C-alpha cells in the first residue's frame, strides 16, 4: 500500500466523496438507526469553516465506525468513511510495518490501552479455546518498564501479569532474572504466555528485544504469542531506524498497538490495533447480532471522524515528509544529548529516540514543575523525562539548559563556601 502525499483538492474530494457514501440522515428515509448527526443547535454544519474542513464536517456528520472493517462484512450505512479507515489500517500494517498486502486486520480503538486490551483478550481466548488452557495456566509477561495497561488487562481478563526486571542503566530485560521468573511460572503450572514487547516504552523510549523473548519462551517450553506495544514508537521507530526488524515480517510477532494521538498529533481517541488475519475471531461476540458483520472490538460504537483524522494526517504528509518530521525530532534530541554529554549529566536514551530520561539526582527539584519534566514515580522519582515533540524546540531546550547550568553552578559554589 503506497503512502503518498495528496493535494488539498484531492483530500477534500476523497473525504467529502466518502461522506456521500454514508447514510444521509437528513435527506434519506432512514428510520431505524439509533444515531444521527450531531445536534444542530450546538454543532451547526452551516458555519463556513465547518463546511470547508473535512475533519469538522465529518465530526458533525457523526459516522459510527462500530466493528472491524477489514473483515469483509460491516454496517453498510457508513461504508464510505469505513473505506478510509481501511486505508489507514493498510498504511500502518503494510507501509510502516511491512505486512504483505491484505494480510492484517485492525481498527481504530479509543487508545493504546484499548488496543493492548484487545490483543490480550484475543490471545487469552485463543489459549482457552485452542489449547484448552484454564485462566490459571495463562499469564501476561512484559518488562517492568511496560505501560500499566498490561496490569489492567491482567485484572480485567483474570490472568496473572508478570513483570520482568530490567537492568537499571540499559533498560534491557535482565536475562538471569527473567529466566528465574519463567521457571517459577512453569512450576506454578502456567503453560501459555501472552508476551507484550515494547517498541519505545513510555518512560524511556527503550525497545525490547522480541527475539530474546521468543528464545526464552522456547527454551522454557511455553506456548506463546507476542504482541508489540508500539503505542509510543509505532509512527517513529520503524521510519527513523532503517535497521528495525520489529514488524510483520517477523514470524513470531502477530499484532501491534500504535497510538495516532501521541507522535502523529491526531485527536485523542485514535489508538490503532493491528493483528494478522485469522485472529480477530477470538474476540467475536456472537450476541452482537444487531450489528452487521458482528462486533469483535472492545469499544462498540466509535466516531468515524477519528479514522478520518488519521487519514488526513497521512495524506497531508506522505511517507517521506513524515520521515522528515521524525528526523527533525531526532536531531533536536541528539542536540540535547550532546549538550548533556558536555556537562557530564547522566541520562538514558535509546539510539535515535526522541525521549531523553535524566537521572533525577542531576536535576534541581525546582526545575521539575516549571519544565513539566515527567517523573517515573511521583513520590520518589529516580528518573525525569524530556519528550521532544513538535513544540519542544531547541530554543526551549536551550532555556532549560541555561536554568540547569545556573542552578547547578549555585549548588557547586554553595559547597565551596562551606
Ligand atoms: C501511551 C501508551 C499506552 C497507552 O495509551 P493510551 O492511548 O493512553 O491509552 C500504552 N503503551 C505505551 C508504551 C504508551 O506510551
From TrEMBL:
UniProt keyword Nucleus present: no
Protein's name according to its UniProt entry: Aspartate aminotransferase family protein
The keyword Lyase belongs to this UniProt entry's keyword annotation: yes
Pfam families: Pyridoxal_deC
Residues passing through the membrane, by range: none
Names of the cofactor(s): pyridoxal 5'-phosphate
Organism: Fluviicola chungangensis
Modified residues (N6-(pyridoxal phosphate)lysine): 262
SUPFAM superfamilies hit by this protein: PLP-dependent transferases (SSF53383)
GO molecular function ontology, one term from the record: transaminase activity
Biological processes, Gene Ontology terms: carboxylic acid metabolic process
UniProt keywords, alphabetically: Aminotransferase, Decarboxylase, Lyase, Pyridoxal phosphate, Transferase
Protein family per UniProt: Belongs to the group II decarboxylase family.
